Amino acid sequence: MSKSYAEQFYYLMKLGRVFELRAKEEYMKGNIGGFLHLAIGEEAVHVGAVLGFGKGDIFVHYREHVYALARGMEPKYVMAELFGKITGVSKGKGGSMHLYDPKFNFYGGNAIVGAHLPHAVGAAYARKYTGDTTGVLASFGDGATNSGNFFEAINMAATWQVPVIFLCENNYYAIGTRVDRASPFADLYKKAKDYMPAVQIDGMDVFEVFETVKKAKEYVETEGKPYFIEALTYRYEPHSMSDTGDYRSPRELKIAKDKDPIENLKKKGLEKGLLTQEYIKFVDDKVQQIVEEAVEFALNSPEPPLEELYNDVFCEVCIDVIS
Amino acid sequence: MLYREALNKAMDEMMEKDPSVVILGEDVGFYGGNYKVTEGLYAKYGRKRVIDTPIAENSIVGTAIGMAIGGLRPIAEIMTVNFSLLAMDQIVNQLAKIRYMSGGKIVLPVVIRMPQGVAKQLAAQHSQSLERFFASVPGLRVFVASDATTAYYGLKYAITTDDPVIFLEHTLLYPEKMEIEEEKNFSPYRARIKKEGEGITIVSYLKMLHDTLKVVPIIEKELNTTCEVIDLCSINPLDISTIANSVKKTKRLVVITEEPKTGSYANEIINKVLEEVFYELDAPPLKIGSEDVPTPYNRTLELASIPTPEKIASLIIKWGRKHGI
Amino acid sequence: MEYKITMPQLTDTMETGKIVRWLKKEGDYVQENEPVVEVETDKAVMEVPSFRSGILKKIFVEEGEEVPVGTQIAVIETDVEKGKEKSSHKEEISKDIKEKHKESKEELEKKVLEQIKQEEEKIELPESSASPSAKKLAKELGIDIKKYQEQGLLPVPAHEKDIKELFYKNFFTKEALEILQKYNLSLEEVVKQIKKEKISKKDILKFIQNNNIPQIVPISDVQKRVIENLQRSISIPVFHIYEEIKTGNIPDIEGITLTVWLIKILGDTMQNHYRTRAKLEGDIYKVYPNSNICVAIAVEEELFVPVIKNVNLKSLKEIADDLNKLKEKAKQRKLTLEDLTGSTFSLSNLGMFNILSFDAIIPPERVGIVAIGTEIRGKTKITFSFDHRIINGREAAIFVDEFKNRFLDKDYLNKLKKEVV
C-alpha cells in the first residue's frame, strides 16, 4: 500500500464525513429537503470501493454522496444538487438520491431498492458487446439482497457471464429491520456463492475494501464473470433524516463507533508511516474549507428557472412534436 | 405480408443498419418469439444480439436500461402487456425518469414491445389493455401500431428515437394479412385519417380500429351521415390538433378503446377535445370501451365484455339518434 | 300458464320478420287459431294465428320493428280465469279513473290552465337545453332558443340542425317545404343557391329542373325482397326457347282470360314432362305430382308471384277464380305462405301491354318460366326460360312442342270449354 493511496483515502473519507455532517446541518436549517440518507460510518466502503474499482461504470443506491465525491464529482455541485439548485449535478431535478454524471461513469443514485442491479448487468452486457472488457460496479445494501431485483440480476449476470462486481454493504439494517429478521441467514455473501465467487470482508477497514475490490475488478475483467463482495459496515446515523433510529441501542452504536473507519485509518496510517499528523491537519482544515465553499456556492446558486420544468423529459429532437 | 412480419422487417432492417440495436426478452432468440415476431433474427444476428432472458420482466427492462446506458439501443420484448406489470418499477420509476432526474445527462433509447388486448378465451390475466397506465407516465413515448404500415414505420421510428418508447401491438393482429403502404415522411406523432367524413369523428386504434371500420358503412346508412375515422399512432404525445380539427368539422366525437371504460385512455382524448372545441360540439362525446370487469374465460361472456363490431355500431347509432343526428 | 308467441318461421328463406300490425291489443281475448298479428316476411305480409286460447298479456315487439325468427314477440296467459282477473282489474282501475275524471273535469281543466300559466312564468329551461354548437349558431343567427323551445318550435335539447332548420324554414312557403322533403334537399343549400327572401313552390321546381336533382324514392320492403330473389336468380344457368303459338283457336268464354287458358294448358302439358314439376335440392330432384304454377302479378309497381295449385285437376273456371282471389289478396297485401310456395313453373303475361315478346327471369327454385307477348292475328310469341341444371335442351324442346301443339288440338280446347259451360 503506497503512501499516496492512504492519503487519498483519508482525504476522501474526511471530505465525505464533513460534507455529510454539514449536509445534516443544512437539512435541519431547511436548505435541503426531502430524504437525506447519510453514510457516516460507511466511508471506508464507499471510498475503498471507488478507488479499488478505478475505471468503469458505477451504479449505486440512494446513500451515494460519498461515492460521488470519491468518484471526483465536485463537492459544490453535489451540494448544489442537495439544495435543489440549477447548478447541481442533475440541475436540481434529482436531489440527494439522484446524482448522475456520465462524465464520471456515475449512473446514480437510485431510490428504488435493488432496481439499479439489472441496470449494472445490462451496462456490463453492452460494454462486453462493444468489445470493452471494463467491469461494472454495483453497490447496494443488505435490504436489497431480499428483493427480486437482486436475484434476477445475479442470475442474469452469471448466465450471461458479464463483468459485474456486486458490492453488498451490510450495515445490518434495512431502515429499522435488522438483517436477521428479514433473511434466513445474516451472512449475505451466501446468497450469491452458487452463482459466482463471493466473499465477506470488514467494511470498516478501507485497506481491506480497497484490496478486495481491486482483486475483484481484475477477476471480472480477466474472467468476464461477476463477483460478489459483502462488506460488513455500520451507519451511525438513522436511515434518513426522517428516521429516529431508536431501534438501535446506545451500546451497539458505541461498539460500532469504536471501530470508526476514519479513526481506524488514522491509527493504521500513522503506525505504518503512510500518514503524518501534518497531512491529517492539512486535510482536516482543507475539507472544512471546501465544504464551506460548497455550501456557500449552493446557497448563492439560482433556483432552476420555471421553464426547466419541461426540459429533459424527452430528448431535444422530439420537443417540437409535443402538442 | 402479415402484421407480425412488418414488425420483424422493421427490426431486421434496423439491426442490419445499426449494430448497436439488440433484442432481448423471453423466448425471443432460439425459439423465435412466442408470437413469431422475432423469427429468423436469432439465426441472422446471433445470440449476442438476440438475447434470450430468464422469466424476469423487471430485469428485462432493467438490463435494457443498463444496455442503453452502455451505448446500445435495446428492444425489449415483454411477451404480453400483462407481464409488464411485473416490470412496472423499471418502466415507471427507472426508464421514464432517469433522463429527467439526471438533468438530461442520461439518454435511454429503449423500446419495449408488447402485445395487448383480448384474444380468445385467455381469461382475465392474459387479456388486458393497459395503455392508460403507460400514457399517463411522463417520460414515456407510447406508440400503438394498428396496421402493418404503422407497425413497420412506427417501430423503426421507435428504435431510432433517443427516448424510451412503449410500443403496443395487438395479439389478434399478428396473423392478419396486411400490406405496408409506402410513406415518405412518416411521423408517429401525426394521427392518420383512415376515412374522411362530415358527420361524426371516430377515434380509435389497434384492433378496435379494424372493428370500427367494418361497421362504418352501417352507421353511415342508419344515421344518414358520414364518419371520419382517425387512427392514432402515438397516444403520448397525442395529436390533438388532427382530432380537434376533425371534431370542429363534424361536431361529434366517438372514442373507442378496448380498455375497461372506467379510467380508460378514451377519457384523456375526450377531455382534451372538450378543452379545445367544447363550444363546437353538437352532442356529448361518446366513449365506447370494455365492461368494467376482469375479462371472463367463457367466450360468450368474453364477447359480452368487449366492444364488438355490432356493439360499436349499435351504440353509435343509438347515441346518434338520441343526440340529433 | 303463460304461452310465448315468437316470431314464426313463415317461409323457407325467412331470417327476420317485421311486425306490421297487431290485430289484438294487450288484454284482449284470443281464440285458438285466431290471427293476432300481421308479419311481413321476405315474401309477403302474413297473418300469424295464435296456437292457444287466452288473454294477450304483453306485447314485446312494437309495430314497425324487425326481429329475428324465434324472438319472443308476445305472451298469452292461457289460464283465462287468471288473465280475466287481471284484465278486469285493469278495467276497474281505468273506470275508476274515468269516473274521477268526469267528476272533476271542469275543475281539473281550470287547475291545469292555471298551472300552465304559472309554469310559463316559472319555468327556466335548463342551460343544457341546447348543444354548445347549437347555442353558438343561434347566437349568430339571432335566434332565441329559450323562446322557441317554449313555443314548441325547437326540441329540447336543440341541436345545430334544429336551429338551421328553424332559421331556413322562414325562407320557404309551406308548399315549397313539402317538395323539399321529397328531394331530401338541405334547406341551407337551397337558400344559399336561390337567394330569395321567400321561396315558392315554383322556385323549387325550377331549381330542381335546372339542377337535375333526383327525387329520393325509398325501396319498399317487398321490393327489397324481390331484388334479393332476383340476385339469387342470377346464379341459375339459363337457356331460352323462342316460339310462336296459335292462340286464334281459343274459344271465347266470358270471364276466362287468355292468361287462364295459358295456365291451364301449361299445367296439362307439365303432366307429361316430369322435369317441369321438379325441384333441385342439393344432390337430388324432388318431383311433384301436380302442376303448380306461379303467376306474376303486379300491384302498384310491386311484384308478387302467388301460386295456382293443382292446375291439372282444375277447370278453367276454377283457375280463373283462384287467380282472382290471389289478385285480391295481393292488393290487400294479405298473401300467406301457403299462397306463395310450392310451384315449379312460372308464367308471366305482358301481352296486354302490346309488346311483341320478352324474356323473363326464372324465380329461384323454379324449373322455368314462360313469357307471353301480344296476340297478333291469332298468333302469340312466347319465350321459355329453363334452368339447365334441371332440364336439358332436348327435353325442353319436346315439352315446348307439346305445349304449342295443344293450341292446334281443337278437341282438347273444346273439352276444356265444355268443363266450364
General description of the model:
Chain A is an alpha/beta fold and 323 residues long. Chain A has a single domain (3-321), classed as Rossmann fold. Helix content of chain A is 44%, strand content 12%. The N and C termini of chain A lie far apart (60 Å). The model of chain A is unreliable at 318-323 (pLDDT under 50). In chain B, 39% of the residues lie in helices and 18% in strands. The longest helix of chain B is centred in the middle third of the chain and has 18 residues, at 206-223. Mean pLDDT of chain C is 84; it is low at 85-105 and 115-123. Chain C has helices at 80-103, 105-122, 132-141, 145-150, 160-169, 174-183, 187-194, 201-211, 221-233, 258-270, 316-331, 337-340, 393-406, 410-420, and strands spanning 2-6, 16-22, 29-30, 35-40, 45-49, 54-59, 66-68, 72-77, 238-246, 278-281, 284-287, 293-295, 297-299, 302-304, 307-308, 345-349, 368-376, 379-387. Chain C is 40% helix and 22% strand. Classes of the chains: A alpha/beta (323), B alpha/beta (325), C alpha+beta (421). The interface between A and B is large, with 52 and 50 residues.
What topology does this entry show?
The complex is a heterotrimer of chains A (323), B (325) and C (421).
Chain A: H1 3-29, H2 43-53, E1 57-61, H3 65-71, H4 75-82, E2 100-101, E3 106-110, H5 116-129, E4 136-141, H6 148-160, E5 164-170, E6 173-174, E7 177-178, E8 198-202, H7 206-223, E9 227-232, H8 250-258, H9 261-272, H10 277-300
Parallel strand pairs in A: 1-3, 1-4, 4-5, 5-9, 8-9
Antiparallel strand pairs in A: 2-3, 6-7
Helix pairs in contact in A: 1-2, 1-3, 1-9, 1-10, 2-3, 2-7, 4-10, 5-6
Chain B: H1 3-17, E1 21-25, H2 41-45, E2 50-52, H3 57-69, E3 73-77, H4 88-95, H5 98-101, E4 111-116, H6 131-135, E5 141-144, H7 148-160, E6 165-170, E7 192-195, E8 200-204, H8 206-223, E9 227-231, E10 234-236, H9 240-250, E11 253-260, H10 265-277, E12 286-290, H11 299-305, H12 309-322
Helix pairs in contact in B: 1-7, 3-4, 8-12, 9-10
Chain C: E1 2-6, E2 16-22, E3 29-30, E4 35-40, E5 45-49, E6 54-59, E7 66-68, E8 72-77, H1 80-103, H2 105-122, H3 132-141, H4 145-150, H5 160-169, H6 174-183, H7 187-194, H8 201-211, H9 221-233, E9 238-246, H10 258-270, E10 278-281, E11 284-287, E12 293-295, E13 297-299, E14 302-304, E15 307-308, H11 316-331, H12 337-340, E16 345-349, E17 368-376, E18 379-387, H13 393-406, H14 410-420
Parallel strand pairs in C: 12-16, 16-17
Antiparallel strand pairs in C: 1-8, 2-4, 2-7, 3-6, 4-5, 6-8, 9-18, 10-11, 12-15, 13-14, 17-18
Helix pairs in contact in C: 3-5, 6-8, 10-11, 10-13
